[in-house]
Amino acid sequence: MTFIEEIKEKAKKDIKTIILPESEDIRVLKATEQVIKEKFAKIILIGNEKEIEERANKNNINIKGVKIVNPKTSDKYEEYVNKFYELRKLKGITIEQAKQLLLEPIYFGMMMVKVGDADGLVSGACHSTANTLRPALQILKTAPGTKLVSAFFAMVVPNCQYGENGIFIFGDSGLVENPTAEELSEIAISSSNSFRQLTGKEPKVALLSYSTYGSAHSELTEKVINATKLLKEKKPNLLCDGELQLDAAIIPEIAASKSPGSPLAGKANTLIFPNLDAGNIGYKLVQRLAKAEAYGPLCQGISKPVNDLSRGCNSYDIAGVVAITCVQAQEQNTII
What we know:
Strand content: 15-25%
CATH topology of the largest domain: Rossmann fold
Structural class: alpha/beta
CATH architecture of the largest domain: 3-Layer(aba) Sandwich
Mean pLDDT: 92
Strand order of the largest sheet: 8-7-9-6-5-10
Number of helices: 13
Distance between the termini: 30 Å
Number of strands: 11
Shape: globular
CATH class of the largest domain: Alpha Beta
Number of domains: 2
Order of helices and strands: HEHEHEHHHEHEEHEHEHHEHEEH
């Protein structure tokens, strides 16, 4: 059973309701059809019911039975507007501005998640990360005890002996541009939790650099060294190491030479990149050249599950992220 098949099986054990606000995108409608067929989640589409159904029929997409909510006609619109206004009035928002924003599908969907009318939201197929995360942070806020919202990709590399049989977490590959050492340590903690949550296996965390154990010296390497020190202080029982070059992190034979005595021994499955340049380039290289499945950017640190999509995603990617969002919602319920 593949990684995403296992995720879908987990999702089926406690069916969650996920908002897909980008109903204008054919890929989203195709993903909706797939989710319905495989029965691992309930989907709510946001938009004009007639337009969505016409678009689906025109493209031979079966979304029969899916709930569609139109903010303009919803009986919850005024309730959501008032709740949103209460949340944001100290930030200077007016009731008129609240009314206008709640007509936008992503904002309306976030309010549905906020009040418990849905369990999570997936967006980003045709919107920027900022357009997905801004309303999430305004409405849902950060999770209790979380110092930083960050993002990761779940990478599944075919025919790969490294990582967890080819499964990796890449963090942060989608949100925090140039994290400090403190922020890098928080990204590592969140990413380790995400790895355990999604795979059920022990995270083995490598903080990556162009240097291994002081083979080079610069402000860049010092940041990773300090982040590793902070991480070990915060989570002494977490299996982690740094600073490590990628080959020393994931190839045991190279680790034996470059980083002898490393607790990871070249078996890292959770890779922490020093900045967004490295993380974004890294995941796209692996996705395109190794033909890996790339699910994300998946968010860490928001009070309820909200996940972004790469605008280059396909319908299968979207369905996979929906399944992951369901599992995150299940985990959150057990924590609460």
